[in-house]
Automatic annotation (TrEMBL), chain A:
<keyword id="KW-0813">Transport</keyword>
<dbReference type="Pfam" id="PF19300">
    <property type="entry name" value="BPD_transp_1_N"/>
</dbReference>
<feature type="transmembrane region" description="Helical">
    <location>
        <begin position="9"/>
        <end position="30"/>
    </location>
</feature>
<feature type="transmembrane region" description="Helical">
    <location>
        <begin position="141"/>
        <end position="161"/>
    </location>
</feature>
<feature type="transmembrane region" description="Helical">
    <location>
        <begin position="66"/>
        <end position="83"/>
    </location>
</feature>
<dbReference type="InterPro" id="IPR045621">
    <property type="entry name" value="BPD_transp_1_N"/>
</dbReference>
<feature type="transmembrane region" description="Helical">
    <location>
        <begin position="302"/>
        <end position="328"/>
    </location>
</feature>
<feature type="transmembrane region" description="Helical">
    <location>
        <begin position="198"/>
        <end position="218"/>
    </location>
</feature>
<keyword id="KW-1133">Transmembrane helix</keyword>
From TrEMBL, chain B:
<feature type="signal peptide">
    <location>
        <begin position="1"/>
        <end position="23"/>
    </location>
</feature>
<keyword id="KW-0732">Signal</keyword>
<dbReference type="InterPro" id="IPR000914">
    <property type="entry name" value="SBP_5_dom"/>
</dbReference>
<dbReference type="Pfam" id="PF00496">
    <property type="entry name" value="SBP_bac_5"/>
</dbReference>
<dbReference type="InterPro" id="IPR039424">
    <property type="entry name" value="SBP_5"/>
</dbReference>
<comment type="similarity">
    <text>Belongs to the bacterial solute-binding protein 5 family.</text>
</comment>
<protein>
    <submittedName>
        <fullName>ABC transporter substrate-binding protein</fullName>
    </submittedName>
</protein>
<feature type="domain" description="Solute-binding protein family 5">
    <location>
        <begin position="69"/>
        <end position="448"/>
    </location>
</feature>
<dbReference type="InterPro" id="IPR030678">
    <property type="entry name" value="Peptide/Ni-bd"/>
</dbReference>
Amino acid sequence: MLNYILRRLALIVPTIIGISICAFAFVRVLPGDPILAMAGQHGVTPERYEILREQFGYNLPIWQQYFNYLGGILQGNFGVSLATKRPVITEFMTLFPATIELALVAMFLAVIIGIPAGIFAAVKRGSWFDQLTMGVALTGYSMPIFWWGLLLIIFFSGYLGWTPVSGRIALSFFLRPITGFMLVDTLLYGNWAAFVSALRHLILPAVVLGTIPLAVIARQTRSAMLEILGEDYVRTAKAKGMSPRRVINVHALRNALIPVVTTIGLQIGLLMGGAILTETIFSWPGIGKWMIDSIAKRDYVVVQSGLLLIALIVMAVNLIVDVLYAVINPRIRVQ
Amino acid sequence: MKLMTTLLAASAMLALAAGAAQAKQLVFCSEASPAHFDPGPTTGGNDFDASSRTIYNRLVEFEKGGTAIEPGLAESWSTSEDGKEITFKLRPGVKFHTTSYFTPTRDLNADDVIFSFERQWKEDNAWFAYLDGLTWDYFQGMDMPRYIKEIVKVDDLTVKFVLNEPNAPMIANLAMDFASIVSKEYADQLAASGDLAAFSTQPVGTGPFVFADYQLDTVIRYQAFPDYWAGKQPIDDLIFAITTDPSVRAQRLLAGECDIMAYPAPADIAQLQGNENLVVQEQEGLNIGYMSYNTTEPPFDNVNVRKALSMAVDKAAIIEAVYQGAGQDAKNLIPPTMWSYNNNIPADTYDPEAAKKLLEEAGVTGLTTDLWAMPVSRPYNPNAQRVAELIQADWAAIGVTANIVSYEWTEYRERGKQPDRKGPFQIGWTGDNGDPDNFFATLFSCSAIGVSNYSSWCNQEFEDLIQKAKTTADQAERTALYEKAQEVFKAEEPALTLAHSKVFMPMNKRVINYKMDPLGIHRFDGVDVTE
């Protein structure tokens, strides 16, 4: 097992280098000049432009810029935002809990709805429920997030007035973050009304962000379940007179969930991508919105380091999922 | 002990949260996060809304809802006979904010004023580069280093600006956001503690509101300053709820989550106007959308060709299709709300036949040109691509072929200002300080070629007029000079003046005394809410 983990860790190093090159190159092929963007409407004199280029190291050869950047990262220095002049890592740490909170709740919704729906659809294969579930899943999977989010806001917040339009908590609550997780912080303050407000603010963005993973998980669960239900040992169990409920719970479900765990792990990466749009629509102050705002401001430092930090998180999550997978499925370890 | 502090802090928070429910609160749904809270080096309207207009004051101020200058931290000022010295008398007893991180021991004095400018000006000032990559764009952009010779402390409450040459717009410039007065005492305290960066994140000013808290990209909280020199504000708490998407801002306003919002999307205006709980204020923007001909490029170097091309454009159709009623035809470079506007200038006529004839007379046939369209929507031109398409069709009717060109926004401006650019270039401007010089000299002076004079137009007569107006103190005389300059501009047609846009400000009916600002700033001093 330890061997397996070490092998996986060793793979991470070249991946990080690859991603850092991609992120670095990506922001340099983006149109726009960060120095000009910084200077704003009035423009900047050629002399001042040169001074700034030098100050930010943009005058160096491109490979040297890359090594300076990589060197900084190895020392834990992800650079300073061109717009706010604050360290990128500080901003990231401030905003990250909001994204995690949203992603966890979205994933929670996707799992508690997606898995039972998939199981039920498989067991009742071909029924109206099966067809409906798979139809909805397909629709959910192909839903453009931006449109879907605005639609829900207009209906549930605008028309019905059931949920708040955006933000993380009602503005009348003035709570300084302790952990950064709003649900946790409101409870730490013992403020029940604030907790309810935070929960209400979470519903719509979590539904929007959870839609695609929910669809994927439901479909994956259904097909894994169908496969298992066709296996000999399940038929044997049935033939021996085991109750259908027991067959599903004891024999089929445990085995069917193995690939679903992998799917969930892979969805974490997709959630980060989805968070960029969802957070923008709902003014959710997480790293997704931060990235979009930074691209708009041509804040190259934030974009390249933000991409790398997100990639690191996704890799860490995938590693954990793979290890868990190896724990429940011993066959994987010897491969 | 630690538990004790935590409990104390928690109960203080609870008290604050509970107290907030009774306090008079105004929530502004703003459009973007501020870079930080030091108005000196920032350039965005959203930065100024969050800093200079809430937390700070300037020596002189724009009147609310207008561009006239009124006393601010300076009670009065006088200009010397030769126009080279401006002496400001400071208001006595002006307090700086007391916050959790700073307690002032003295009132505002001349040292604060000198520090506020020298930090932007003198490279040997310890605060000149207190943040990485800091630039003082407005101080540089308004050419302050060229105009200011020195700033002298006469006594604690008297400051003298010594200029290199007379400069009439200087007073208006000093009402701009970059000229906000900061506390030298606070700066000294931070310098002593070594935490210079806090100057931008934990601001201290003399303004109507005290900075309370900022949660990155989410919410900014302010409280009314009880010792404000002009009296405490009617509202207790001012909250900026940062909401980047315009449709979501509109939904928040409709849902009552905010009281007032910035920059509605044109598509949402009708719905907002139709809501009985809301009021939608509107105002002519202090702006101009125009199209610069490159006057050094044949055949655009021929004034008759420029006139013919302008004459062939159906501006009324463009304003209707693109501005959708939220704009008005521009016959001059400056908007009609600005002093010195020359209303005697005849409006542009749309006459394709005459245009054709004029082109023939100039010997121009089968002209093919680039036509530049901005990639972004700006207040002065909501959809430059669409405008370009309409102009393209109009020009096709007189035998001119236009190929539409566009680049990413910063690159677009960079390429556009090159003196050898090919083809007419769409651009525009929103005024900074209400002075005509901010339009004429910034956009069409000879020295602005390669910077913001996208026509590369250097006309001696025009130049003499605007330079003379700049160094003249008498406003009537300046008006006459600018009126004449507008005649020259019209006769030479270096650019097609397209439209001045309308700006909308939707708000809840409970908001009272909000006045729209022609400079596009959002000000909440004096604003009240009904219970």
